[in-house]
Each structure stands twice: as C-alpha cells, then as structure tokens.
Amino acid sequence: MKTEEELRMEYRRQRQELEEQAEDIHRFQQKGEEIAQQTYEAILYQVRQEEEDCTDILEMARREIEQLETNYHAELREKQREVRQKTEYAEEQFHKELQQVERNK
Questions:
Q1: Helix, strand, coil in percent for the chain, rounding step 5
Q2: I need a labelling partner for 9 at 20 to 30 A (CA). Which of 1, 27, 63, 87 fits?
Q3: Are 90 and 8 in contact (CB under 8 A)?
C-alpha cells in the first residue's frame, strides 16, 4: 500500500499532466482560430483581386470555413471534457486512497 506522501506526489503529478493537457488544448484552439481567420482573409484577398463578382464563391468559402470551425470546436470541447473527467477521476481516486491510508493507521 502506498504511503500518504506517495499518494500526494502521484496525485500532484497526475494533476500537473492534466493541467498541461488542458493548456495544450487551449493553445491548439487559439492556433486553429488564428489559422481560420488567416485563411478567410487570404480567400477574401484573392476574391477581391478578381474583376468579376465572386460573392457566391466568397459566401461558399465562408460557409465551408464555418463548418470546419464548428467541427473543430466540437472536437476540442470533447477533448476538454475528457481532461475534466480524468481530473475528476484522479481526485476521487486520490481521496479514496487517502481515506484508506487514514483508516489503516
């Protein structure tokens, strides 16, 4: 059986890993939003360079980007939910094991 200090160290390590995962997801989300904006601006620039009316093309591109962003955000929310669940589980396990150590003293 693990000691209280071992449990605390393991719990802190797990929490740190999960916090890092949450931060990675957040950074990934920001980068994705930046790329989407840059892509939209690049499309808009190209369309404006054309002499003909490209409103339909621009609208189609905008809708496509919005759909990709929707899918992207849904996937990110799922990853965030997974990290939250893992964090909650780690906390529950830590408290459960800590109580067991306390009972065995």
A1: 90, 0, 10
A2: 27
A3: no
Rounded Cα distance between 41 and 76, Å, is 23
Tokens of 87: 């964090």
Assign 51 to helix, strand or coil: coil
What is the pLDDT, as a whole number, of residue 51?
67
Residue that has been written with the tokens 């093309």 in this structure = 57
Q: Around 76, how many Cα atoms within 13 Å sit in the side-chain half-sphere?
A: 18
- Global confidence as pTM: 0.73
Query: What is the token pair recorded at 7?
Result: 């449990």
Rounded-to-integer distance, Cα 104 and Cα 10, Å: 19
Give the angle subtended at the CA of 67 by the CAs of 62 and 72, to the nearest 5°: 125
CA distance 76 to 71: 9
pLDDT in tens, 21-32: 999 999 999 998
